[in-house]
Specification:
Layout: H1 9-12, H2 28-32, H3 42-45, H4 66-89, H5 102-107, H6 116-124, H7 128-134, H8 136-157, H9 168-184
């Protein structure tokens, strides 16, 4: 009998002993040489702990700190505040400070964003009536964006990921509102929506 064959119960008087296989996914040097591995991976055999996937146990990523969670909402707030601050300090009601709307220049019609800078200027200076006269849709957009931002920040502070799932019908409805607003503000009876 050769030494590489397992000992049968009849030969030893006890149960058959088989070589132990390596854990799944570990080939090691024995597997490359065509031999069956008989021990754990080298890191465990030499007393080194194998780091778990993802940096923490269970393969989950490490939880983000509060500062990292609120970084994006606060960064966006800083950018929007800077943009509104610039528009509030450089009056768009005086020509020469901002480029002319290309759609208005080429067609003579107001686009949905025409008057948006003037409405932002009015919002910064607290003239909400003037903001609505310049671009009512933009004012609704500013308010909606502020509410969505507040919800995003509150979810991040509580450690819940911000998940905004908007149904396709809402996008189509929003597009229809913008289209109707654009057409009506260019007609004689909708002149009150023109900037």
């Amino acid at each position: 009998m050769s030494s590489s064959q397992p000992i049968s119960p009849a030969d030893s008087g006890g149960p058959a002993q088989r070589p132990t296989a390596a854990p799944m996914g570990y080939g090691g040097p024995d597997a490359r040489a065509g031999r069956t591995a008989t021990s754990a991976p080298p890191s465990a055999a030499h007393g080194f702990a194998t780091p778990p996937r993802g940096g923490v146990s269970g393969g989950r990523p490490a939880p983000r700190t509060l500062l990292r969670r609120v970084g994006a909402p606060v960064g966006l707030l800083a950018a929007v505040t800077g943009a509104f601050g610039y528009v509030g300090s450089v009056d768009p009601n005086h020509p020469g400070h901002y480029p002319v709307c290309p759609f208005l220049y080429l067609t003579g019609w107001y686009c949905p964003a025409c008057g948006g800078l003037r409405s932002a200027y009015a919002v910064v200076h607290g003239d909400f009536g003037g903001a609505l006269r310049d671009n009512a849709l933009a004012v609704v957009g500013y308010g909606t964006a502020a509410v969505l931002w507040a919800l995003w920040l509150s979810r991040e502070v509580r450690g819940r990921p911000a998940a905004l799932r908007v149904p396709r019908a809402v996008w189509w409805g929003l597009g229809a509102v913008v289209l109707v607003f654009s057409v009506v503000r260019n007609l004689s009876f909708g002149a009150f929506l023109a900037p």
